Amino acid sequence: MNKSKSYALLGLILLIAVAYQPANVAAHPPGPITLAYDIDTEILTVTVTHVTADVNTHYVYEIVIEKNSVVFTTESYTSQSSASGMSDTFSVPASNGDILRATAKCSVSGQTSQQMTVSDITATTTTTTTTTTTDSWLPTTLMILVAIFALAVVMVIVWVLRRR
Predict the structure, then answer these.
(1) Could you tell me the pTM of the whole model?
(2) Could you tell me if 123 and 37 are in contact, meaning their C-beta atoms sit under 8 angstroms apart?
(3) Which of 28, 67, 104, 132 is the most buried (most CB within 10 A)?
(4) Is residue 103 within 8 Å of 86, Cβ to Cβ?
């Protein structure tokens, strides 16, 4: 095989490889999160919205519960209960003024946190802060894919120009 055909073949392979990467590029962090605390039963209900096409490969893999900025419990998951999200309950003894925080982590990219302050007056959610962070590997992956795509385009252009 001559050099120009090798360039064309390599360029085509790179283009195909880039075309089959959309699943990771479309990844998103979970959220929003809704918290509800029942002060009588000491149960924290965490409801996470996380829309996904495949609950077995792109799901909330971990929920971390903090009480007053100290990790209280961590629950791990191997899939998500529905394509729109999930809900779980946690036994968390808390009193008036305690701050409860839940962080949901996505198996593909990112995490979202929600916190509330416990109140004796009501057992409903009091939301004070929402924080969303996206893991740093996603932008790096995008940069690598763009570089591969650009290299493939350059190789195809070189191949076309050499044929003239």
Answers:
(1) 0.63
(2) yes
(3) 104
(4) no
What are the two backbone dihedrals, phi and then psi, of residue 9, each rounded to the nearest 5 degrees? -65, -45
Going from N- to C-terminal start, the domains of the chain cover: 3-24+141-163, 30-133
Structure tokens at 56: 């077995």
pLDDT digits (tens, 9 = 90+) for 7-60: 666 666 766 665 555 544 456 788 889 999 998 899 999 999 998 888 888 899
According to CATH, the superfamily of the domain at 30-133 is SOR catalytic domain (2.60.40.730)
CA–centroid distance for 155 within its chain:
34
Cα gap 46→92, rounded to integer Å:
12
87-145 pLDDT, tens digit each: 999 999 999 999 999 999 998 888 889 999 998 655 554 444 444 454 444 555 556 66
